[in-house]
Structures are given as structure tokens and as C-alpha cells.
Amino acid sequence: MQLHQLKPNKRKKKKRIGRGGKKGTYSGRGVKGQKARAGNSSQPVIRELIKKYHKLRGYRQGGGKKGLIVINLDLLEKHSQEGEIISPEVLVEKGLARKVKGKLPSVKILGEGKISKKIIVKDCKLSSSAKEKIKKSGGKIS
Fold first, then answer.
1. Are 97 and 69 within 8 A, CB to CB?
2. Cβ–Cβ contacts within 10 Å for residue 79, how many?
3. Residues 112, 77: contact at Cβ < 8 Å?
4. Is residue 21 included in any domain, yes or no?
5. Model-level pTM greater than 0.70?
6. CATH number of the CATH domain containing 80
7. Using the 8-state DSSP alphabet, how is residue 126 labeled?
8. How many domains does the chain have?
């Protein structure tokens, strides 16, 4: 093909509907109904569905840190003996925590409830109230 053989593209004109002409009485709009009227610009149904969803980022993903297990002091009071070492391994053995994808979970101990036993806490995160209560009962944190 040579340059002198090229021809410009002919653009189709947009069809103006509902102005009389050769399309018959209804001019391609069908008979009656909302879409046959002048000024119809109905929005698609899917818009209403989209508007219902949350606009928060990542709302489908479960909240919280993955692999972090929260345990309260009252649970430790029930399931531990005097002078026992509390660590993620021990909690998994007792059934208070589960492994996450084959790895030991990171454990955080919160200060809800009372503790009277002297326990030794290792490799666990602690809230300030939990630290206070464990030290008051005579326990150790390492």
C-alpha cells in the first residue's frame, strides 16, 4: 500500500433517536415505558449494589494481627500450676493456643482477671496491667 492509496476513516454519526424521521412513529424507542420518554437517563442497577458496600480499605480481611494470640490472666490462673513456666510452646501443649502455618504463634497476655500463682513468663508480650499483676503475685517475666 502506498501513501497516495490511503483514505481517511469515515466516522459514523451518532443516531439521534425520537425525532421523527424514517424509523416510524416510535423512532426506535419501542412502545411506552420509562425508556421511551424524553429525558430518560436511568442509572444501571449495579450502581445501587456498589453503593451498599463499605468504603473502608480491606474490609473483607479479618481484623487484627495475624499469628498473634491473646490470652487473659484468668485463663492462665485456671490452667497453670505454681512456679510453672509460661511460653508459646507450653500454651500450644495445653491447647490454649494453636500453631499458625506450622509455626509457634506470638502470644500476648492481657491483664483481665486475677492471678494468685507465681508463674514465670517467657517469650510473650505483656500488657502493662498484666505485668503489674504477675509481679504482685510473685511471678517473674523474662
1. yes
2. 15
3. no
4. no
5. no
6. 3.100.10.10
7. E
8. 1
Q: Say how far residue 108 (Cα) sits from the centre of its chain.
A: 22
Terminal Cα-to-Cα distance of the chain (whole angstroms): 83
Residue 124 lies in a domain: yes
Strand partners, 70: 108
Q: What are the tens digits of pLDDT across the range 93-142?
A: 999 998 888 888 899 999 999 999 899 999 999 999 999 999 999 999 98
Task: Provide the 8-state DSSP code for 116.
Answer: -
Residue 86 lies in a domain: yes
Residues in the chain: 142
Q: For residue 77, count other CB atoms closer than 10 A to its CB.
A: 15
Query: Which domain range does residue 93 map to?
Result: 68-141
* Domain annotation covers residue 15: no
Taking CA atoms, 21 is separated from 28, 34, 50, 142, in Å, by 10, 21, 39, 90
